[in-house]
């Protein structure tokens, strides 16, 4: 196991508020992990602690074995803030050259990077003329510069259109394939669904989930909603037999556990012509996120 980021029983208070409570997360080389949570859940605080910008009250964090903020940890870690801002009068190439100099990378290495993030055509245009998506790509190129062992990306695709988002994630995937551990903070599960190996969810400073999407789905055991359209004058019968709730006169809605789905369908099928149609609504990512992030069901 090649552990890059180790967070062990991290805790922090701000005044009387516990903003991080006993958080333990481990991320290995090449792993992509999403850090999700509502506003104020503690994502930024945790990222700042990993960067060594804010001290923990309890527990410990190490980055490739080093203390956050130490010189070896800093050269190992790259950070893309949510709203990345560069000097508007510089071109993309000049911005990257400047960062290359700061981190001791050869200037010749800048062109392939611009190409890799899809900015080769605009490399010599001023950043002030870039769209939000282009600025995010430049930010990602800056993250890629020093071949970091750990990349912290704060809402990397917020405000991007679906195609730009897709392209940005392709670069993130490539980065992980080269062995970088990637931590992506986000507000939504739909955003990171297929692009991460593991999902960690913070709720009021506590880690309430840390697993693969498949395991989280299984464990949440969210109900399936069956919406039955009744034949004329049959809604009351169906509602009575299934203990479902009548909706809009013609419909009956029932909830069933995933394991009871076939039994419920068989019961409906046995009612013959009384049932005109059935719609099945499987719990989606939004429901799953709500389940973990707020503690509510579905
Ligand atoms: N500098 C600060 N001083 C006092 N309280 C703070 C400070 N920074 C954050 N907090 C509080 O700590 C808690 C966690 O905030 P944090 O910014 O880490 O959440 P977040 O999950 O990143 O939220 P968002 O999605 O809005 O960025 C919140 O209750 C916030 O009000």
TrEMBL record:
This is Putative ABC transporter ATP-binding protein YxlF. Its EC number is 3.6.3.-. It holds the Pfam family ABC_tran. It is an enzyme of class 3 (hydrolase). Residues 5-229 form the ABC transporter domain. The gene is yxlF. GO terms for molecular function: ATP binding; ATP hydrolysis activity. SUPFAM superfamilies: P-loop containing nucleoside triphosphate hydrolases. InterPro entries: AAA+_ATPase, ABC_transporter-like_ATP-bd, ABC_transporter-like_CS, ABC_Transporter_VariousFunc, P-loop_NTPase. It comes from the Bacteria. It comes from Roseovarius aestuarii. Keywords: ATP-binding, Hydrolase, Nucleotide-binding, Transport.
